[in-house]
Amino acid sequence: MALAVSGGPDSLGLLLLALKAELVATVHHVDHHARPTSGDDAEFVRAICHGLGVTCVVHDVAVEPGGNFEARARAERRRVLPAGSMTGHTMDDLAETVLLNMLRGAGVDGLSPMVNDPTKPLRTLRRQALHDFVHEENVAPVHDVTNDDPAYRRNRVRHELIPLMNEIAERDVVPLLARQAGVLFEDRSWLDLLGADDAARDVSDADCRELSRWPRARLRRWLRAKLSTLDEQNERHPPSAAEVDRALRVVVGDVVATELSGGRRLARRGQRLSLEGGSTTLTNNG
Predict the structure, then answer these.
(1) Residue 8 in contact with residue 35, Cβ under 8 Å?
(2) How far is it, in rounded angstroms, from Cα 107 to Cα 120?
(3) Boundaries of every domain in the chain
(4) For residue range 28-61, what is the model confidence (pLDDT) as tens digits?
(5) Does residue 174 have a pLDDT over 60?
(6) pLDDT for res 245
(7) Pairing of strands 55-60, 26-31
(8) Is 123 in contact with 90 (CB distance < 8 Å)?
(9) Is 55 helix (H, G, I), strand (E, B) or coil?
(10) pTM here?
(11) Alpha-carbon distances, residue 280 vs 182, 231, 232, 263, 277 (angstroms)
């Protein structure tokens, strides 16, 4: 099994738990070269792995500082890590991702992240419990100072928003957010089951007269799937709410065409749709 290990307490906890379970693991460390000391982190992980008798592979990537750094770094990690690599994401990470996606205006898919994801085996474990376990194992993890930088939105959610929510709710909201994500995931799975026939229908096969009779929630879900794109790392990106609204106007005949992201164009001729342009459009099974 492949484990993504940064050297921080979460990923080290993942490694130590895997070894306690007597699993055969290979550690993969990604050096983004985002900090002058990032090379020290790589050497630290190498040393830990050597002491534990675990194979360690270091991947060197270049992610320039600047806007959208987290997303660009995540994309680079996905590019170089073996498929199915496990990460040390905890319930706290899940809750933070729910809130971040909510701030971006995500729908049901974005509000139910990580649930049932086999690459995140610690998603039901609290971060503090994992850190306590690492401490008890007498391992001193590295501290990534960027995790304290308020320039990154996730850090503000972690250090400012969630504590404020706890104060207002007078309770720990992380389990609540995780539970809600689980409920939404169940709803999402049911919707996917109900929409299996819809998902098999290509844009060019659909009759706009039939689509116009669908409940709007069904039509929006179909359009989100059909207008999604894949990036070079095979990561799915749904269209924006504004794009879906414009696509709806094409379906019901208010306009004959609309421009979409990625240089694409959704058009209607008679009762048939066509989606042109872009090389990474999902046009078949969503």
Answers:
(1) no
(2) 21
(3) 2-154, 196-276
(4) 999 887 677 778 899 999 999 999 999 999 998 8
(5) yes
(6) 96
(7) parallel
(8) yes
(9) strand
(10) 0.87
(11) 30, 7, 8, 11, 9
